[in-house]
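User: Good morning. I'm curious how zinc ion would be positioned relative to this chain. Could you predict the structure with it bound?
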Amino acid sequence: MEKFNTDGVVIKTSVTGESDLIVFVLTRNRGIIRAFAKGARGTKNKLHGGSSVFAYCDFSFSEKNGVYHVTEAVVKDLFFELRSDLAKMSLAQYFCEVLLKSLQEGEVEPEYLLLMLRALYNMSKNKKPVLQIKAVFELRVSSLLGYAPPIHACAQCGAFRTDRMFFNCLTGDVFCENCGNPNELPVVAFSVIAAMRHIVFSEFDQVFAFQLNPELLAPLTRLTERYLQNCLQQRLHLLDFFWAAMN
Ligand SMILES: [Zn+2]
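Assistant: Good morning! Here's the predicted structure, ligand included:
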């Protein structure tokens, strides 16, 4: 039997047995771990608080023959404020679903956990607009998955900037005013492309730190949403709840 400790955030739970849960924990260095939390549905059980979705904990796990158990969960943050806002709640659940669908077993890039934690924190504490958090998460995850869009310059002529530009949500290519075809691709303000460049190319610590005209946040995240959807090759239905709650 192996025992180890890691921090992580619960991204899914399912009920098993009379009082147990199966928790899916996005960990820092071991990807997503699926583990039994014995007795965790009991409100007095020591694993109860740390076995809820979005709980960020210091976990202790034991593993035997590929089966994991949570032996301890010391709660660091529950992001409780999310639960009173339907749009934020739907968005956080969508983030969980994206990670569950896209991460391979054994995927160990720590930035997934850091990105998720920063997104949950910024949402629960109102640090950034919700649409901005969504755009950052979607585009940065696309990049982590190996689909960083080639948006440094116009794919045809190499121009860095024109006032209006075009973004291809299928390929991730960007085109300048002269090369893009408005009948084929959505036209976007240059500042939207600049924001996308920031998300893709900045150091992680800076990834949420950009300013964009609030009216352009929805166009930005419509693009990042479609781009991630194409990377994952599926549309996640939680998006419908999110957009309904936003309207
Ligand atoms: Zn061009």
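The beta strands are 2-16, 20-27, 32-37, 56-64, 67-77, 164-167, 174-175, 187-189. The chain has a mean pLDDT of 95.
Let me know if you'd like a different ligand tried.
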